[in-house]
Amino acid sequence: MPYKVYFLSLGCAKNQVNCEQMMSLVQAAGHEIVPDPAGADAAVVNTCGFLTSACEEAIGHVLELAELKRAGTLKKILVTGCMAQRYQASVLEELPETDGILGTGSYGDIVPALSEAMEAGLRPCHLGNIHTAPQNGPRILSTPPWYAYLRIAEGCDNHCAYCVIPSLRGRYRSRPMGELLDEAAELASAGVKELLVIAQDITRYGTDLNGEHQLAALLRELCKLDFHWIRLHYLYPDEITGELISTIASQPKILPYLDIPIQHCNDGILKAMNRRDTKESIRALFKTLRTGIPGLVLRTSLITGLPGEGEEEFGELCEFLREQKIERAGVFPFSPEEGTKAARMDHVDAEEAARRAEIAVDVQSDVIDAYNESVLGAEREVLCEGFDGQAQMFYGRSYAESPEIDGRIWFTAEEEPEPGDFVTVRLTGTMDGELTGERT
Q1: For residues 23-62, b (16+ Cβ closer than 10 Å) or e, as one string?
Q2: Ramachandran region of residue 91, left (φ > 0), alpha (ψ -120 to 50) or beta?
Q3: pLDDT in tens, 349-364
Q4: Is pLDDT at 229 greater than 90 in this prediction?
Q5: CA-based angle 196:170:172, to the nearest 5?
Q6: Is 4 helix (H, G, I), strand (E, B) or coil?
Q7: How far apart are CA 304 and CA 34, in angstroms?
Q8: Contact yes or no for 56/92 (Cβ under 8 A)
């Protein structure tokens, strides 16, 4: 019999793609995807397990759904994804509200797991091989119709000392280029205007297939499709080739916006964390990128309180931020994750790591304010995403703002655009750290 199934996806965009694939499988099996857990037969919580805080968030959502079960408005709860993979036994033992789990190697088992829980009264536990799990398959997009993600690889071989991803997602596996181009063509035909190319490390794409970097070649093929923007996420510093830089610079559809997580700049910390960069190599790369790609906006991720970080090393990080003027940065306090090498090293306590993160955010705020001031008076192409009735302004994003993680551009318009329209906006001011302007 058909069931009403509710899906909740937590964590990163890569996880969201897995959830979109599960939704497609469930719908293809004759079940109905519903937007509300109340009244559903089953709820699927696709979890993040990267940090302890992410697991705590997932547990909170499971407990909220459990209240619906107790009230009789929800029958079953399935937990999938990274937390289920990382804490398999604990999820089943310590969350009795959970009616089954699927690890990151078993997303494709969602339909039989649903049947086992709903019809057979079983408590399914599907934990397939994380190194060989299929990556392709139809999706039901959960993003707005004007943008979508294209995940070009799974897993990670970098083995940074603080990170559990390789143990949750397996070794690095690039998807075949033909398969990716077919999927991208479907997205373009569906009206997607902004394609976000994602993976744990997109710069390594293709090296596991034939030993050669193939990202630049893939991007050139994607540019032949009917996308307006192509945005790149998670480029590792030491894998960025000259061919890639020239491709980004020469292809108008590829946005001059690069997400390059550096985590820190101190040489000793980088080495201890099994990063392959140095402060000088990062500095040289950023100079090369800014020289070769006009108007480049950089995004990075930073961790404060890593093992080996004292006040001097932290001051070095803040000074590097001021020097490099990185336009976008996510700053996170170090979390000693169980099973990682870094968790066994000496480090500052959580409170101090959080204090340093707040200071780094303040430094970054000054960088963002200076950047915003520097672009006032310029005209930007903006992808309109909606209208805010309270502010009485439209909002959207330019090439410098990626969805979900960066801010918005707010603007007025005599000729009202529709969500998904590209408009030209003259930047005239700021509001709470975000740019404002008027449609020209």
Answers
A1: bbbbbeeebebbeebeebbbbbbbbbbbbeebbeebbebb
A2: alpha
A3: 999 999 999 999 999 9
A4: yes
A5: 55
A6: strand
A7: 40
A8: no
Instruction: Report the chain's C-alpha Rg in angstroms.
Output: 22
Q: How confident is the model at residue 121 (pLDDT cuts 50, 70, 90)?
A: confident
User: 176: which DSSP letter?
Assistant: P
Which alpha helices (H) appear in 224-349, and where do they start and end? 242-250, 267-272, 279-292, 311-324
- Binning pLDDT at 50, 70 and 90, where does residue 2 land? very high
CA 352, chain centre distance (Å) = 27
CB of 214 closer than 8 Å to CB of 205? yes
Grouping H, G, I as helix, E, B as strand and the rest as coil, residue 195 is strand
Which residue type does 217 have? A
Report yes or no: 288 and 245 within 8 Å, Cβ to Cβ: yes
- 177-227 confidence digits (pLDDT tens): 999 999 999 999 999 999 999 999 999 999 999 999 999 999 999 999 999
The per-residue pLDDT for 1 is 79
CA distance 244 to 284: 16
Q: Tell me the C-alpha distance between 287 and 305, whole Å.
A: 27
pTM value? 0.94
Task: Let me know if 7 is exposed, middle or buried by CB neighbors in 10 A (0-12, 13-18, 19+).
Answer: buried
**Is the pLDDT at 120 greater than 90, yes or no?**
no
Q: Which residue's structure tokens are 């960066």?
A: 406
